[in-house]
Amino acid sequence: MMKNLQFLVFFGILAGTQCLLSCEQCLSSGNHYCADTKLCNTPVCVNTITVALNCPRKSNVTYDDNEARTKWLPLFGAGATNEKMAQKCFDNNWPTMKLSKRILVDCSDPSPVLPTTQCAMITAVDTTQRILVMSFRATYGNTQLGEEVLNYFVGKKQFFDVGMIFEFFYDAYVALWRGGLEQEIRNLKYKYPDYEVWVTGHSLGAALASVGASWVVKSGIFTPDKVKVFTAGQPRTGDYNYAMWHQNTFAYSFRVVHHHDIVPHVPFQYEVVDHDKMYHHRTEVWYNNDMSAGSTYQICPEADGLYCVNQQVDLSWNDHTHYFNTDLNVYGDQGCPKK
How far apart are CA 227 and CA 234, in angstroms? Predict the structure, then answer.
């Protein structure tokens, strides 16, 4: 009887200790963490966390919906159009921001059958608020969209020493880097050494923004504390190691998702070809509505788990092209009219 009682006491202490473990401690001990109960190794759990990347965590900085609408939206709108309209985007929304350079390069698939496609981005400078900008254009045309989709099954490339990213995103960014971006960003850094750099984009531009922010840090041009990353409708860009490094590197990094947008669900988290697992990095901001002014949003506690947008099964292309109640297909080309 005494032995049974001792066993029960020991088991109760052990179970209690397990319950007090943090998510990271729980996973490192070989157990699973329950996001619903916030306890380690809960026998019955709907949302089980098995990777440290998804351990619930609050964002390091506060998300600002008004700043997203009045500053970040015009920035990635300007990156989607030509020089004249890009500056008009700034004149209409952010008058102290001035276009510095637009870079347009061939980023085609090397296949001789497919027509040429191009990738584009802009840089800009605000000397009043001491901000530099890198804004990348979204997928442009059905041919480029087809190239992206096909390349999801091709493979990935090593990104410095921090993981793998999809080959199409890597090659597209390198084409921009070698096509004028490296010289431009080094010149801007030399001229404005203490400025922050804001990096943004939508769709393909969002993936390139993630890569671009990471690239200028790994290249030693900027320190992470000087970089802000804001993306909209971003596809999964890299593997687990890349996602983990990214979210541990950038304090200010928001990945906004609109309602049933299909693109953040691709490529699939589990890759059929090489059986690798691809992950989004933090911090997801999910608007489960039309994103009109005053709309509610949710700051997702997981990087790429079953919370927020991954709950959706009905997906929408229309939601991908409409952010902050704005049609991004025409927004930049109209000079980002102020609402």
Answer: 18
